[in-house]
Design a protein that fits this description.
304 residues, alpha/beta, 16 strands, TIM Barrel, 6-stranded mixed beta sheet
């Protein structure tokens, strides 16, 4: 009598057969990202021990075992989420704390703004923010930065740009975008949500160091939102505000493979979102975890 396979084994076997049937070399082109928990950005309950399959920059499958031949990225007990989305940034130009940051527009050429933006964009991406709406830049410096990122010349998040500076905090249609440099009160949030207005994350990162955009999640939680709702504000809701929800904002089949892995469970501690250990942007890994063993070796060789 032929032994029957359990359901997980049957799913994995079927996935392997299907992949092999399409192309003999396809399995080597699949990346399987494993984690301890998945918060997929849809509002659904977290999924334990997920495996997200990625191919050609898109999500191929969610919740199946890795097919034979797939490249496995094992994040251990970390939590996997969609790439974060910030609806209020100003990447071009000097950052807070830099010399002459307050009057940089009087000292610097617009071209210098774009060059500094390369650094700021990299920091923002490594903070887990794979999509941003940029609120203004002198003489189209933000457009130049957007184009350089889009063409693969420099690393950075997917950018929506507005050209010259414009207000980015406040209400936009049926959305409210609080920001770190224009914080609202818990009453504002309660009134907005009671009226059916959805909250989208905006860090206002022109007022805080670049790469610390994740502090906006804690801001939203401090304004009375649950950790779960704060996460939705920086994923699904933000994608809907930017009209990119068919492409990003959730971990679902067919969407762009923007993934973030964090230590612990952000539903219990929202601050875990401020320092991602893993970032994938459109299927490309831009940040990997530094394991304890590697940290130990680094200390050994540094003599510290």
């Amino acid at each position: 009598m032929r032994a029957r396979l359990g359901r997980p084994a049957r799913v994995a076997a079927f996935a392997s057969i299907l992949i092999a049937a399409v192309s003999p070399a396809l399995a080597s082109e699949i990346v399987a990202v494993k984690a301890g928990l998945l918060i997929d950005g849809t509002g659904a309950p977290p999924k334990k021990n997920p495996v997200v399959l990625v191919q050609d920059g898109k999500i191929l499958a969610v919740g199946v075992l890795a097919p034979t031949g797939a490249t496995v990225i094992d994040l251990g007990d970390r939590t996997l989420l969609p790439g974060f989305i910030d609806c209020h940034v100003q990447l071009a130009g000097r950052g807070p704390g830099e010399e002459a940051a307050a009057d940089g527009s009087a000292r610097d050429l617009p071209q210098e703004d774009a060059i500094r933006g390369v650094r700021n964009a990299k920091r923002t991406l490594e903070a887990g923010f794979t999509t941003v709406r940029n609120i203004g830049g002198r003489d189209l410096s933000d457009v130049a930065l957007r184009n350089a990122i889009r063409d693969g010349i420099v690393p950075g998040p997917r950018m929506l740009v507005s050209g010259e500076a414009a207000g980015g905090s406040g209400s936009t249609g049926a959305f409210l975008v609080p920001s770190l440099d224009a914080a609202r009160s818990p009453d504002d949030i309660r009134k907005a949500t009671a009226a059916g207005v959805r909250i989208a994350l905006g860090s206002g990162t022109g007022g805080i160091p670049y790469g610390q955009n994740g502090r906006a999640f804690e801001l939203l939680a401090g304004l009375g939102m649950s950790n779960s709702d704060a996460i939705l504000a920086g994923t699904r809701n933000a994608a809907e505000l930017l009209e990119l929800d068919k492409e990003v904002g959730t971990v679902e089949v067919g969407k762009v493979a923007d993934l973030v892995g964090v230590e612990g469970n952000p539903l219990a501690d929202i601050k875990t979102l401020e320092a991602p250990a893993f970032v994938m942007h459109a299927g490309a890994v831009v940040k990997r975890p530094i394991e304890k063993e590697k940290k130990g070796l680094a200390r050994l060789f540094s003599g510290k």
